[in-house]
Amino acid sequence: MLDAAWQEGVAHFNAGRWWEAHESWEDPWMRARGEARGDERAFLQALILLAAALHKRWHHGSLSHRNLFKADAYLARLPGVYGGLDLGGLRAQVWAALNEPGLSPQIVVAVPGEHAPAESTLAE
Question: Which Pfam families match (predicted)?
């Protein structure tokens, strides 16, 4: 099972509390160091950047495509499904939400366990 910070971040993200999601994922991202954990770190970094893009867009009124494009660089390193998430689908949801008020992307674990980060890495 993924750690409490991961789950807390997902709950914040799905409720539109993107800054809080970003903050929840920061510690697991900082702990995901080393070559063996490169995919996990890229995964968390992409999620942090997607949350930051949404926060900037809807709380500061700024266009935040720069964060979205930074997230793309991390997403490109990963398989299409990672941590049970359809990353392309999530990215498309975020893109739509950046351009359409009222849309709220959701993180849904569609394929539990497929390319999921190891329990021991996110639960440290």
Answer: DUF309 (PF03745)
Q: Please state, in angstroms and rounded to a whole number, the distance separating the CA atoms of residues 37 and 77.
A: 13
Q: How many helices (H) and strands (E) does the chain have?
A: 6, 2
Which domains can be identified in the chain, with CATH numbers? 4-122 (1.10.3450.10)
Tens digit of pLDDT for each residue in 39-73?
Answer: 999 999 999 999 999 998 877 767 668 899 999 99
Overall pTM > 0.85: no
Q: Which residues contact 7 (CB under 8 A, 6 or more apart)?
A: none
Residue type, 74: Y
At CB < 8 A and 24+ separation, what contacts does 25-31 make? 25/51, 28/3, 28/122, 31/121, 31/124
Distance of CA 54 to the CA centre of its chain: 11
User: Are 10 and 51 a contacting pair, CB within 8 Å?
Assistant: no
The percent of residues in the chain predicted with pLDDT above 90, rounded, is 56
> Which residues, listed in sequence order, are joined to residue 86 by a DSSP beta bridge?
81
Q: SS3 of 82, please?
A: strand
